[in-house]
């Protein structure tokens, strides 16, 4: 009992330290990535921290799984180096008896991973998608900032204003360049104001000039106006009905037989099953070589994690393309990994070796 409590305390310390480091690294990477999206106009600059928070929240299942695996491998390797495992074996306990304290420590983490993967993951992706859609579907006037050239949502117009009023309904020194149906127009005005007419947002320009050229006709058409109205967009924009698969709830994925939905369902359940497999694998392969560096176990853990998750990604693409069924993939990857880990654990518990397996029984004939 004392040994069980001590190993769980050490696992908790190692898990907490690893989690803090990984969350810091992932937050830094996501911040750089989100800032890049904001610079390209995909994300509202004022929502950068919010998008980064939702992104990190969606990545927490992977972070928790890796932290758990590193904690198990690192703790057990340290026990081998300090000969604590020798005391454990000398007391008549084997490798299989270590599985119980490891699972007693890991089950709350595995429960959190399953909750995050099945419930929080689609919710976080949905929040990110809504923020991006709201920003991308904002009106052309909403995109304009004084003193900056700004492109419209469809890329056919370029706007520029010198100054605007506090209510954002009027502006001075307005410039609009547009390309439509083979015609290029450049419109400038001394002032402009916004109005809604017939459900459309209109910009009414005052005291300006309009230059128009056509691709199939030579010449330049110049016209001056006292007041000129141009449509900016609809009064309200409806969000798109196209929702990414990652934003679908888990019950929706269950109700559909679409291969893409089945692939996403397999990915979410795979995140939960991977945590259990990594606990078993960490116990089965943990050891310490006095001649090797202390970072050897950490390098192995990271390599095994990368390989496992790459196989999950490949399997998701295979299921999504219909080349493999979801049940066959889950059984092959996750079930096979669990069976392999348990087999290695039983072999180490009983101290089997290849020589013992291939050795002939005594007295056998040649």
Percent of residues in helical segments? 55-70%
Class from secondary-structure proportions? alpha+beta
Count every helix, treating DSSP H or I runs of 4 or more residues as helices.
10
Spatial extent as radius of gyration: 31 Å
Along the chain, the helix and strand elements come as: HHHHHEEEEEEHHHHH
End-to-end separation = 51 Å
pLDDT averaged residue by residue: 78
The poorly predicted ranges are 234-242, 360-366
Tell me the major beta sheet. Answer: 6 strands, antiparallel
- Please state the overall shape, judged from the principal axes of the Cα atoms: elongated
Strand order of the largest sheet: 1-2-3-4-5-6
Number of strand elements: 6
**Strand share of the residues?**
15-25%
Describe what you observe in this structure:
- The chain is an alpha+beta fold.
- It is 57% helix and 18% strand.
- The protein has ten helices and six strands; from the N terminus they run αααααββββββααααα.
- It has helices at 2-39, 48-81, 84-90, 99-136, 140-143, 250-255, 259-285, 296-321, 326-349, 354-358, and strands spanning 150-151, 157-164, 170-180, 183-197, 200-214, 221-234.
- Strands 1-2-3-4-5-6 form a six-stranded antiparallel sheet.
- A hairpin with a 5-residue loop joins β2 (157-164) and β3 (170-180).
- α1 runs parallel beside α4 (99-136) and α4 (99-136) runs antiparallel to α7 (259-285).
Task: Give a short synopsis of this structure.
With 366 residues, the protein is an alpha+beta fold. The chain has ten helices and six strands.
């Amino acid at each position: 009992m004392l040994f069980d409590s001590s190993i769980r305390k050490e696992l908790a310390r190692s898990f907490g330290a690893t989690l803090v480091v990984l969350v810091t690294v992932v937050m830094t990477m996501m911040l750089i990535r989100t800032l890049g999206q904001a610079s390209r106009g995909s994300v509202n600059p004022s929502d950068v921290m919010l998008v980064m928070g939702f992104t990190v929240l969606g990545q927490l299942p992977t972070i928790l799984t890796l932290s758990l695996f590193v904690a198990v491998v690192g703790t057990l390797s340290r026990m081998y180096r300090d000969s604590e495992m020798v005391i454990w074996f000398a007391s008549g306990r084997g490798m299989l008896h270590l599985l119980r304290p490891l699972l007693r420590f890991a089950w709350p983490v595995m429960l959190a991973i399953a909750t995050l993967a099945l419930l929080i993951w689609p919710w976080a992706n949905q929040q990110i998608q809504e923020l991006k859609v709201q920003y991308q579907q904002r009106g052309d006037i909403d995109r304009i900032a004084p003193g900056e050239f700004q492109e419209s949502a469809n890329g056919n117009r370029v706007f520029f204003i010198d100054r605007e009023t506090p209510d954002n309904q009027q502006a001075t020194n307005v410039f609009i360049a547009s390309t439509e149906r083979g015609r290029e127009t450049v419109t400038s005005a001394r002032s402009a104001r916004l109005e809604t007419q017939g459900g459309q947002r209109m910009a009414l320009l005052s005291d300006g000039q309009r230059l128009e050229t056509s691709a199939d006709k030579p010449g330049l058409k110049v016209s001056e106006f006292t007041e000129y109205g141009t449509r900016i967009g609809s009064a309200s924009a409806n969000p798109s009905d196209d929702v990414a698969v990652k934003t679908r709830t888990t019950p929706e994925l269950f109700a559909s037989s679409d291969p893409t939905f089945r692939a996403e369902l397999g990915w979410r359940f795979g995140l939960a099953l991977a945590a259990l497999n990594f606990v078993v694998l960490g116990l089965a392969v943990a050891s310490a070589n006095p001649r090797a560096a202390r970072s050897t176990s950490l390098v192995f853990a990271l390599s095994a994690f990368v390989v496992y998750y790459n196989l999950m990604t490949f399997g998701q693409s295979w299921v999504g393309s219909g080349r493999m069924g979801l049940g066959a993939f889950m059984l092959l990857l996750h079930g096979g990994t669990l069976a392999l880990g348990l087999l290695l654990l039983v072999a180490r518990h009983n101290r089997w070796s290849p020589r013992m397996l291939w050795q002939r029984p005594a007295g056998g004939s040649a």
